[in-house]
Amino acid sequence: MTKINDTHVCDFCGKSKEDVEKLIVGENAAVCNDCVNLCVDILKDEKIKNFPKEAKLLNPVKIKEYLDLYVIGQDNAKIALSVAVSQHFKRINNPSDEIEIEKTNVLMLGPTGCGKTMMARKIADYLDLPFAICDATGITEAGYVGDDVESILTRLINEADGDLEKASRGIVYIDEIDKIARKGESASITRDVSGEGVQQALLKMIEGSIMRIPSSSKRKHPGSEMQEIDTRGILFICGGAFVGIDKIIQHRTEAKSVGFHANVANDTDTNKVYQDLTTKDLIKFGLIPEFVGRFGLCINVEELTVEQLVKVLKEPKNSLIKQYQYLFDLDGIELNFDSEALNEVAEKAKELKTNARGLKNIIEKALLPYQFDAVDLVERGLKSIRISKDTICGKPAVMIFDKKKNEQKQ
After folding, report:
1. What are phi and psi of 399, to 5 degrees?
2. Over 90: is that where the pLDDT of 313 sits?
3. In angstroms, how far is CA 216 from the centroid of its own chain?
4. CATH number of the domain that 171 lies in?
C-alpha cells in the first residue's frame, strides 16, 4: 500500500505548508500553489511554441499543394496566399526583440465563384485553425441596427470553442468587402453607417490591437462583462467582386482617343485588367486610404474558363460530380455523366457569369426529377442513369433497368 503524504510538504519543491499560501494534499502526493502556477506557465509556453511550428505547415509549397486538391486554377493567387500565410505564422511564432515585423493582411479581388472563399477556408483547415467567415454587408457602425465590427471576433472565438489564445491566432475572412465602399465622393448630410463608417471601425482591428468584446456574445452594453483579445496574431483576409473596378482601371490605363483608330476595351481581357490594379483604383472605387493601407498584399483571382469549370466539376476531392454520385449510390443507382454534358454545364455557368457558384444550380435542375423518384425507380429495377448533353438542355436522361426486376414490378 502506498504511503500517504502526512508531512504536509510539497513533493515538487520541498516547501512546507507554512511556507506557501496553499498546499494541495492528495492521497499519494502534495503540491503547493507556486508549483501549480509554474506548471500552468510552462504549459502555456509550450502551447505557443507548438502552434504551428512544423516546417511542413509553414512551407508555402505544401500549402499550395493542399489548395490544389480543392481549387482549380488560380495559381498566382495560391502562391501569393501561401507565402502570406507562411510569413504571417513565422512572424508570430518567432518574435524578435530587435526587429518588429509588420503584419500582412490580404485583400482578394475577382469575380464571384472563382475560389476566394474556398482558398481561405482550406488554408484554415490545413493549419487546423479557428476560421470565421463574416459578411461585410451586415456590419454597421456602433449604435446602429446591425452587427458591430466586434461581432467578427465573437464568431472567431465561438469557432475556437471559447479559447481566446487559440482565437488570437486564427483566420478571419470578411466577404463582400467591396460592399462597404463609400457611397459617393461628395459629402452627405446623412451618415454612411454601413460604408465608410465600417471601414473606419475596422482599422484598428485589422491593423492589430487589443479589442474589448462582450463575454456574452451579444452587442456591447455598458453593464456587460467584457473580454480582451489581441488581433495582432489574427490573419485577416478580405475578398470581394469589386464590380466595376475594371472600368476604373481601364479608364486610367488606356489612352483616350476618338475616331476610326480609337482604342476599344475588350471585355474578354478582364483578367489582364486586374493585373494593373493600384491602390489609387481601390480608393477611387470607394475604399478609404487608411483601410487600403492595412493590406500588405492585394491579389486577384481570375475568371474561370470553360475548361477549368469542367475540371471544377470532376477533379477536386469534394467535386460536385462525386457528391451527386455518392448521393445516388446511397439509393443503389449508378450515376454517370458524358463529357459533353459537363461541357454544357460549364458553358451555361459561363454564360450566366456565375462561374463555379452556378454549376450546382444547373446540375440540380437536371437531376431533380430523378432524385424525387429515386426510391420508386429502384423498386422498378433502375440500375444506372446516364446524363447527356440533351439532359442538361431539358430532355430525359438515359435510364438502364434490370429487365427481370422491372417485369416483376409491372
Report:
1. -115, 135
2. yes
3. 25
4. 3.40.50.300
Mean pLDDT of the chain: 81
Q: 85 and 45: one domain?
A: no
CB-based contact 75:300 (threshold 8 Å): no
Quote the pLDDT of residue 21. 85
| Number of alpha carbons in the 13 Å side-chain half-sphere of residue 223 | 0
* Range of lowest pLDDT (265-274, 319-328, 333-342, 373-382): 265-274
- With cut-offs at 50, 70 and 90, classify the pLDDT of residue 340: very high
Is 55 within a domain? no
pLDDT for 6: 54
| Domain co-membership, 154 together with 209 | yes
Q: What is the pTM of this model?
A: 0.72
pLDDT above 70: percentage of residues in the chain? 81
DSSP codes joined into one string, 25-86: E-SS-EEEHHHHHHHHHHHHHHHHHTSS--TTTT-HHHHHHHHHTT--S-HHHHHHHHHHHH
Residue 54 lies in a domain: no
Same domain, 116 and 230: yes
Instruction: Answer yes or no: is 326 within a domain.
Output: yes
Q: Which amino acid is at 326?
A: Y
Q: Confidence class of residue 9 from pLDDT cuts 50, 70 and 90?
A: confident
Same domain, yes or no: 290 and 355? no
> In whole angstroms, what is the distance from residue 56 CA to residue 58 CA?
6
Whether 333 is covered by a domain: the verdict is yes
Burial 192-211 (b: 16+ CB within 10 A, else e): bbbbbbbbebbeebbbbeeb
The candidate with the shortest Cα–Cα distance to 270, out of 312, 296, 241, is: 241
Dist CA 270 CA 110 (whole Å): 10
